[in-house]
Design goal:
Radius of gyration: 23 Å
Strand content: 15-25%
Strand order of the largest sheet: 4-3-2-1-5
CATH architecture of the largest domain: 2-Layer Sandwich
Number of helices: 4
Number of domains: 2
Helix content: 55-70%
CATH class of the largest domain: Alpha Beta
Mean pLDDT: 90
Distance between the termini: 77 Å
Shape: elongated
Low-confidence stretches: none
């Protein structure tokens, strides 16, 4: 059985993973059939490069992704595309739905950044308000 899984590379403390199609009996860092992507969790934001056509080929031929690889494929929208292809939708309809999904993901990322910015401002204001009475006490003495 073929699995889509991660092959660890890089040096100690700085992992980089290849996403590979490998026989389930081969060792984690051993022989593989096809390299279909790259995942670097240490960059900010993390880097995920996937050869979409090769991943779709392996999924069509019954390859099972590990949970981590499945998560990475979901983040890039590959599983959505595979699901839509299985439903038998036309290429135009698939492209339209993928574009909608990408715009939703971009909006979600913008909302997350805005939320983090507001939280940082609240922390800064709270710190300033806590420091003001202490400064007044020090000046009174």
């Amino acid at each position: 059985m073929v699995k889509l899984r991660l092959k660890r590379m890089g040096r100690k403390g700085f992992p980089v993973y290849k996403i590979v199609a490998a026989d389930s009996r081969s060792p984690r860092d051993g022989k593989f059939i096809d390299a279909v992507g790259l995942y670097d969790p240490k960059t900010h934001p993390m880097t995920i490069d996937i050869k979409e056509d090769r991943v779709l080929y392996w999924l069509k031929n019954g390859a099972q992704p590990t949970p981590t690889v499945r998560h990475l494929l979901r983040r890039k929208g590959v599983t959505l595309k595979f699901h839509l292809m299985k439903k038998g939708l036309s290429a135009e309809e698939i492209q339209k739905r993928i574009e909608e999904w990408n715009s939703l993901q971009a909006n979600r990322a913008e909302r997350e950044l805005e939320k983090k910015r507001r939280a940082a401002e609240r922390r800064k204001a709270k710190k300033a308000s806590e420091a003001a009475p202490k400064a007044e006490e020090a000046a009174a003495e």
